[in-house]
Amino acid sequence: MSTSDLKGAAPLRPISPAPSPAPSAAPVLRVSGLSVAYGGNTALSVDALEVREGEVLGVVGANGAGKSTLVNAIAGWSRGAPRVAGRVFLDGADLSALPAHDRARAGLLLVPEGKLVFGQMTVDENLSVLAEVAAGKGRRVYDREAVFELFPRLRERRGHLGSQLSGGERQMLGIGRALMLGPRALMLDEPSIGLAPRLVATVLQTMRTLASTGLTILLVEQNVRAAIDIVDRLVLLERGRVVVEGSAAAMRDDPRIAQAYLGTKES
Ligand SMILES: Nc1ncnc2c1ncn2[C@@H]1O[C@H](COP(=O)(O)OP(=O)(O)OP(=O)(O)O)[C@@H](O)[C@H]1O
Ligand SMILES: [Mg+2]
User: Fold this and answer.
1) Which of 49, 108, 191, 203 could form a disulfide with 103 if both were Cys (CB 3.0 to 4.6 A apart)?
2) Nearest ligand to the C-alpha atom of residue 79
């Protein structure tokens, strides 16, 4: 929205710090005009995407739709040598020029598939090697105990090496490590992949719990059936573009989601 869109609107009142994570008008995470090309091929072209405080935005789509490309570009990670254009804002601050580690320091965190875990370190060690983090607005820096409270299974496995963990436990550990970095916005790339259905529910429900504390979440999922129960809004990506976007309730009835992902027939 440009300022000209605001002509005639009432002057905006300054935003005072909210005592609780009530939904605020300004998005925590905002992306505009983001495009990514590998060689000559455009893999992603997203005009605008917003996630508000305490909201869980789901991003779904088939293999190769551009989901990982999207979150990697937002986090400032590059796989190969993509050409990235566009802007990424966190609480209104433009992070586009920052490298990945500075975006993380600012509170924009990505949990890739199981990759934030050190295989040759124990769970305890994985949860103690983090740099000191300066807490900022709306950022809670978890300590190891808080991570264990969220994922009691990790406490039981605290002496095991990262490489000895199951897929679900690795995923929990990866999320735990991200939480210790005090995320303002947390992005997760297919946290449920390869997990048993009961664990999928556990991990996704934890996202809901975290959102209720005010954490802003962008969740990439292929498991639309599981995701739609816990997200607030859903975005469907196809060939790198947003083809439909709406509330979870509206998306449940959208034929593009229902037919392709929920297995229901158009009536
Ligand atoms: N490093 C790269 N070099 C060239 N092309 C790439 C690279 N990474 C991804 N692509 C291409 O970009 C497109 C989007 O890939 P991406 O990994 O973002 O999809 P995805 O939606 O995450 O898929 P999946 O569900 O399989 O993880 C695909 O066509 C893919 O082949
Ligand atoms: Mg992917």
Assistant:
1) 108
2) 1
Q: Where are the domains of the chain?
A: 25-262
Q: Residues 37-94: pLDDT tens digits?
A: 998 899 999 999 999 999 999 999 999 999 999 999 999 987 667 899 999 999 999 9
Nearest ligand to the CA atom of 66 = 1
Ligand 1, atom 17: nearest CA belongs to which residue? 68
Model pTM greater than 0.90?
Answer: no
Pocket of ligand 1 (CB under 6 A): 38, 43, 61, 63-69, 79-80, 222
What is the 3-state secondary structure of the chain?
CCHHHHCCCCCCCCCCCCCCCCCCCCCCEEEEEEEEEECCEEEEEEEEEEECCCCEEEEECCCCCCHHHHHHHHHCCCCCCCEEEEEEEECCEECCCCCHHHHHHHCEEEECCCCCCCCCCEHHHHCCCCCCCCCCCCCCCCCHHHHHHHCHHHHHCCCCEHHHCCHHHHHHHHHHHHHCCCCCEEEEECCCCCCCHHHHHHHHHHHHHHHHCCCEEEEECCCHHHHCCCCCEEEEEECCEEEEEEEHHHHHHCHHHHHHHHCCCCC
